[in-house]
Amino acid sequence: MALGEYVYCIISSKDTPEEFNIKGIEGSPVYPLKYKLLTAIASKATMKEYKPTDENVEIHKNVELEVMKHCSVLPVAYGMVFKSSGIMRGTMKKVYPLLWRSLKKVENKVELGIKAVVPKEKKELEKLLNGKSLDEFRKECGTEFIGSLGEIAVSAKKDRLFSDKLICNQSFLVEKDKVDAFTDKVGELRNKFQPLKIQYTGPWPAHNFVNIRLMGGGR
Amino acid sequence: MVFVVDDLLYTLTLNPWIFLMDIIHTHALKEMYPLDKINDAIKENRMLYEFGELTTKEYEAIKINLMQKLEMAKKVREMNLAPRLDILGFGG
Question: In chain B, which residues have their Cβ closer than 8 Å to the Cβ of A170?
Fold first, then answer.
């Protein structure tokens, strides 16, 4: 099968590290593909539809996180593969202003995620609900989380509750120098809502705040 | 899913029962393999594993089962009934 260019993310050309020591999809080395002031981070990969297996998603995520150590990252959706570097650059040319604006939007910012789930034990759940219905508690908790954390964040987003066990699922775009303040606030909420189980994740590239789907030939 | 047999029979003029069974079968499969619900269950499984509520073994077993259902759900959606009806002149 023919090889194409699998794209992970886009960065500013001036921030492009001199060398990458990262392996991408199918173990191929990761390299930069420059177009004007933007650089796509890519690796050679078979032209095919990439199923979101744990392993592949982990590789995609790790490449983004590694690049994030050096500069701000405009994330590209999982599974975007182009027939050639020429086609990739052609696509970047077509949507160049949009890419540039999106990169500016996430520059010096990271995404942080909050998920909260009900405790497994019935006694703990009763203590948590304190006579309220699960829906009432979900509404109250969700409002308080997005209200207090949203004050620190640049932008906040309520994500879909894909499980009955979820009380809240929210994403926040936070300036890098405010991450510590955000973390402290999460700690306060964790104490206040004990024994609610809270998962605080990040920093991630801002997948929930920019939706870059460069259409390659692999799908 | 409610099937309004009268309406379907009204639109089908040739061997209606064969096509009706085909339609019912496809709808039944879609109900058995709801894509959105399976995708949500995959996310929930991963989340519960990350929260430490499932062991690796439990997580992997559920994941295998859900991935099989997901493949089946995709295949069911690829069964494109409309063109078959169109070929026979029932597509409207």
Answer: none
